[in-house]
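Sorry, can you check?
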Amino acid sequence: MPDLHTLTLPEEPSDALAAVVALRAMADQLERKAVRQAIADGWTWAQVAEALGVTRQAAHKKHAGSLARD
């Protein structure tokens, strides 16, 4: 994982903040795909939650709805 102190930000604050928004969207998409795969592979919500560093209830609340729609 890169050291946050060595990352360079765009000069313009609006560009830097746009980059943060884009990274959050990418991270959310990656998380959804990873959770979907873990559940498909037989992981429990407790295992998913532990891997994400959240409670089982939080993981289920955030992701169960999107899994049901697939």
The chain is about 70% helix and 0% strand. Helices lie at 13-40, 45-52, 56-69.
